[in-house]
Fold this sequence. Notes:
It comes from Hyaloscypha hepaticicola. By secondary structure, the protein is α/β, with parallel strands linked by helices.
Amino acid sequence: MSTSIPHTSDHLPLSSSASKLANGAPLTNGHTSKNNQPETTHHHIWLITGPAGCGKSTVAQFIAKTMNLPYLEGDEYHPTANIDKMAKGIPLSDADRWDWLTNLREESIRKIHAGAQGVVLTCSALKRKYRDVIRVAPYYSHDVLVHFVYLHAPEDVLVQRVGARKGHYMGANMVHSQCMILEPPGPEETDVITVDVSASVEEVEAEALAKIREAVKRELVRDS
Ligand SMILES: Nc1ncnc2c1ncn2[C@@H]1O[C@H](COP(=O)(O)OP(=O)(O)O)[C@@H](O)[C@H]1O
Ligand SMILES: O=C(O)[C@H](O)[C@@H](O)[C@H](O)[C@H](O)COP(=O)(O)O
């Protein structure tokens, strides 16, 4: 692995502070040939979003397995204080979420720089400003493209699914607060794929995969 970002024509020079991850580790160049990919091949962050119970983890695992990409489960990156709060039924504040979101972006880039062709990441990303944190990824790694797969279903469906789920700190009592602050992606957010998840797991997974493949095809056409 190389240790610094080369200041070549397709890399904006980054300031010394911007060229480091939050923990001080350097951001490294992802333009290796580890996957035998040409230099111009994009790396994707597929961010599976939506409120608790919409099926982010379920769909992300399927997509990651099918596309042979690493899977980053956003829930695993919360500080203990956030998990304790949510387990008590207290919704997180914006302040609780910023470092978590930045960390998810950086972990995704780190995986790509370590040789992954892309990553599949789960994160509710309920507000536009949260999605914008992840959208900054190409600033740090110029060949990265961020896509959101927004999973949605009526609140009562989410409540029922979270209620039936076992062994998770997030209780069904948290769904309402999530739906209240949810800012569904608007038409101007052109990097979003939307999937209605009211259908069965198999149907939802198939639709998400088909839409992801269409997005990749569109990219190839655009780049050719
Ligand atoms: N399309 C679906 N139909 C029925 N149940 C589902 C569907 N997708 C997910 N589930 C179930 O709903 C619960 C919540 O799904 P999960 O993937 O944990 O959602 P999230 O990660 O968004 O909170 C899980 O028990 C899961 O098995
Ligand atoms: O799987 C779930 O039940 C949710 O996705 C859950 O994990 C939670 O939503 C976030 O991790 C907390 O963050 P937010 O309050 O920003 O959704």
